[in-house]
Amino acid sequence: MTAQTKKRGAMENGDGGVGLGLAAFIANNEDVGPIVRHAFESGKPEALLHSLQNIVKMKEVEIEEICRLHYEEFILAVDELRGVLVDADELKGTLSDENLRLQEVASSLLLKLDELLEIYSVNSNVGEALATLKICLQVTSLCKVCNRDIADAKLLSALKTLELIEKDYLQNIPLKLLKKVIHKQVPMVKLYIEKKICSEFNEWLVYIRGTAKEIGQVAIDQTSLTRQKDEGMCARQREAEESSRVGFDVNAYTLDLEHMAEEAMLEFDLAPVYRAHHIHIGLGLGEKFREYYYNNRLMQLNLDLQISTSQSFVESYQPFLAQVAGFFIIEDRVLRTADGLLSESQVDTMLETAISKVTLILEEQFSLIDAANHLLLIKGYVSLFGATLKKYGYRSMSLVEILDKTRDKYLELLLSDCRKKLNYVFSKDSYERIVIKKENEYDTNIAAFQLEPVDGVPNLPYVAPFSSSVPNACRIVRSFIEELVRYLSHSGSTNIYDVVKSYLDKFLIETLNDGFLNLIHGGSLEFPQVVQIAGNIAILEQSCDMFLWHAARLCGVPRCLLEKPHSGLTARAVLKASHNAAYNGLITLVNSKIDEFMLQLTSINWTLEEAPEHANDYMNEVIIYLHEVVSSGQQIVPRDALFKVVSGALSHISDSITTVLLSDRVKRFNANAVASIDIDLKVLEGFADDTYKMTGFSDLRKETSFRDCLAEIRQLINLLLSNQPESFVNPVTREQNYGALDHKKVAIICDKFKDAPDSLFGSLSSRATVQSARKKSLDVLKRRLKDFS
Fold this sequence. Notes:
Keywords: Coiled coil, Exocytosis, Transport. The chain is mainly alpha-helical. Helices cover 74% and strands 1% of the residues.
């Protein structure tokens, strides 16, 4: 149905507008509800119904038209189909024939295709097998390499191989059995590697503990050598400075290549530690190994800090401190090179433990030591031990403090040892001037201590003005200085010279000087020995400057500072006072010896019947002894001091005779006894005059001579032998002739003076007349003295 037909039918129905709209809605498959609602609302449902009927009719017409049109086409299509069927039958026959021929031709090819497909399947299976075998072969090859590395102790390489197997192959192994075996063996191999490396590390712990002592000893020796080089350099610098004060010394500034060798590097094997650390890190046990290392080393340190009980500390302190030093040298190397195996806090903890323990041991052992040289040796080694630790970055302040605490004890022990040495020297000295017969003896006993100002060696044999105790004492003093400086050096004190000087003063005063005083006042020495001691003191007094210079040189103090006022030793003045005390001791000694001789005076016959012709024996002995005093004293004792000794001896003799006459031991004496004393006195006066003139004492221009020392006894004897003893009461006469006499003493002695009784014909002799007149004068004197008193 065409559009025109539709239009005409609608117009024929008289309602073309509604019909067209409705037709358009139906054609477009739109909702016709609005149109139906409108028709009913407008009251025209009939028109709507009519339009729908027309539309139905129109559709029927269109259906008929379509059927007619398609039927014709169907007939035509059937005709064409019949033609096609004929062609298809022909084609089918052709295809059947071709198929038969194709089957006949392709049957052989199909057989070959089946064979090819089978080959393709086999090839795929073989490829998969080869891939599987390749993976398994690689895994087994790596396992073999791992086993070989383990057998060759290449544990780190074996561990890397295991890591490679686990990371790249273990999850990709196609064979479940092989995968299961390898999965089971890998932890076992790792456990074996861990045990193996721990065993090697434990062996290293044993090795390194045995090596630590040698390492520490070498390090301490290097520190000692460095210290010696530094001290030698300082000494050469001081010598250069001293030389520059006088003139330029070319040799003082030469480069000493001999001391420029570099310090040898300490060698010890840490490879087992590095290997064990890396392997444990590879095993994932790094923290466990670090803890294991620290605990074992701390345990070894505690063992090292136990001192030997089978040896004394003096014998074991060096190995003990060397072991501790070696331990921390090793730990320093481990800290710096072992990639975090140790932390600084752990090393500090071990150091605090060690220093605390060492300090306690030193305090205990120092309290038990009773020898200064032992304390010095230990202190020196402890100082080197501390310096060695400091060189490797460790601090040990408590060691310095404990060393400072031992200073007083060391000085006490040193003074005691030197006192014993001096006492031994004094006891073995004969106090005779030493005779130098060889040049080397002169160098070691005199030149070495500058005891003689003479340059060069004098003619040998040479008689020194001192005894053997002087050079020996100088050796002891120098040894005291050197050991004291050695002890105080490297102890943290900035100025040890003042300390050394004060203790040197103390040593010279309390030990050397007191030793001389004990000898002088001991009363066991003879006059020549005391004379020699006085000479020795004078020599040592002059040597005080040499002692002080030696101490200053060792302490690095320029010599120019010693030239300042009040820079000397107090001991010099003390020794000078002891020198004077020695001379006073000579006077006491001589007087004491004279007293021994004068004891014979009380045993002589004081009532002789005849006047003797010679001096008494005691006086002869006194004269001989005084000659010895003068001859031995002239060589050493200054003339002024010797004058005091001799004059004191003569005065003592005069006093001794007077004292005997005054004592109760002499009840009575006569003129013959006085004549005997007069002879003794004349002999003594002769000695006094000869000695005064011949020995040069007259050059001293003293106010009194030796004879003047006998004035009291001479005037007393002259009074007793005088024909007019009563002249003593005459002031003028007494002043001129008896000025040294005391009237009380004269009165006592005169009371004891009784002239001898008259013999049978005594009254007929002229001597009796003289004696009678003298007796009367003496009686007058006695009465006058009684009246005077």
